[in-house]
Amino acid sequence: MESNSIYGDRIGKSIEDLLNFELKIVNKHLPIQRQPLKKLLNMDVPHVKLRDGSMHIFRRSELETLRRYLNEEEAERLELPIIVILRPDIGEGIGIIEDPIAVKVVARILGITLSDARLTLYKPHIAMLRRYFDTLFQFAIVVEQDIGTH
Which of 8, 63, 98, 104 has an alpha carbon within 20 to 30 A of 118's alpha carbon? Predict the structure, then answer.
């Protein structure tokens, strides 16, 4: 019986490794390093480098509009793009923002009262953010990995 457990552990590990590999491919559009809003506003062409080697260019008009929602300290500390975590395992079209400064700013933009340290976004929120701030957000797909054998 113990040999089945060993094989089960190996299979679980292989599936987990495959899932991690696939998620890296799906999320290759994410930035290597995010940049503060204030720094981006000072660039000739505001951009960040992505994991796949390409560049993500921000619309200056979106950066300037976003700037109006922040105080000076937030403008120095808010890093862009804002990462929205999509978790298909908790529901289609549901996104989560965990960065504390981004949580406050996005809640302010959407007129949402915060009740948690993270912000859960639903389809209408995401649609509105994409409509007005399309280049300021990146979406990461994350799957809770509870792969194991029973």
Answer: 63
